[in-house]
Design goal:
Helix 3 crosses helix 6. The protein is 35% helix and 15% strand. The radius of gyration is 15 Å and the shape is globular. It has a single domain, classed as 3-Layer(aba) Sandwich (Rossmann fold), CATH 3.40.50.1950. A 5-stranded parallel sheet has the order 2-1-3-4-5, sandwiched between helices. The protein is an alpha/beta fold. The two termini are 27 Å apart. The protein has 8 helices and 5 strands, in the order βαβαβααβααβαα. Bound molecules: flavin mononucleotide. The site of flavin mononucleotide has 15 residues, from helix 3. It comes from Streptosporangium oxazolinicum. This is Flavoprotein. It holds the Pfam family Flavoprotein.
Length: 193
């Protein structure tokens, strides 16, 4: 069966909240998105890969494709949730040493809307490098949300298990990202490698 619709990449990092990323996937699907989950290599230990693959009908991707593998389609929008301290800082610095970061490295240049939902504790959120990263990503047009209250998902009102922060991330995507006709498949790196 051919899928039609807009493609949302949900990039999931190695934070405790990753166990509930299926909620974000479900909410996005309810809005009409086709969802591709991309996990950082470390995040693979935090998520239920078979459950996410059943839900999306797509393999969870976590590594760059081999040169002889087909080029995956380009995303129409990207949500990074939960975004770790590590990945937020690397994204801001332009580092592309995971497939997830490779996608993020290109996104602003391609005009792909990116929403970042960090889950970092207060100690990390207060660090100068993190604050600079957030500032620098925002200056490039990346929408960086505040880390959920209490900074640790376990401290949020619903223990981090409800839809609240996930729904906020989805709401932050520009509406036109879902409605405009889809572009061509990606041509450059990382998918074009
Ligand atoms: C149980 C556990 C929970 C973690 N939760 C977080 C978190 O909420 N936020 C965060 O920034 N790092 C968290 N970390 C640390 C990250 O996993 C670590 O920095 C890792 O290198 C991030 O890799 P990634 O950014 O490639 O996903 C956690 C680590 C463990 C073991």
């Amino acid at each position: 069966m051919t899928e039609s619709g807009r493609l949302l990449h949900v990039i999931v990092c190695a934070a405790g909240a990753a166990r509930d990323v299926g909620r974000l996937v479900a909410l996005a699907q309810e809005e009409g998105w086709i969802v591709q989950v991309v996990a950082t290599p470390s995040a693979l230990d935090f998520v239920d890969v078979p459950a996410l693959e059943r839900r999306t009908g797509r393999p969870v991707r976590s590594r760059y494709r081999r040169p002889d593998e087909p080029k995956p389609p380009r995303a129409d929008a990207i949500i990074v949730a939960p975004a770790t301290y590590n990945t937020v800082n690397k994204f801001a610095q332009g580092i592309a040493d995971t497939y997830a970061l490779g996608l993020l490295a290109e996104a602003p240049g391609l005009g792909i809307p990116v929403v970042v939902l960090p889950f970092v504790n207060e100690a990390l959120a207060a660090r100068t490098p993190f604050r600079r990263s957030v500032e620098s990503l925002r200056a490039e047009g990346v929408r960086v949300l505040p880390s959920p209250s209490g900074s640790d998902p376990a401290d949020t009102e619903d223990g981090g298990r409800g839809d609240h922060p996930w729904a906020l991330a989805l709401k932050e995507l520009p509406r036109k990202a879902l409605k405009e006709p889809s572009g061509e498949e990606g041509t450059g790196s990382p998918d074009g490698r």
